[in-house]
Amino acid sequence: MPRIASAGLHVLPGTGHLSPLEAPLALASALRDFVAELESA
Question: pTM of the prediction?
Fold first, then answer.
């Protein structure tokens, strides 16, 4: 992350490597927020 200026960390509690299956709505929300930040930059 230190090498990418706009990088961030978002932890999805209770998930592992299969976060799209374990928490699809939370992952979609995090991705939506990320894309919105890119679009507003």
Answer: 0.76
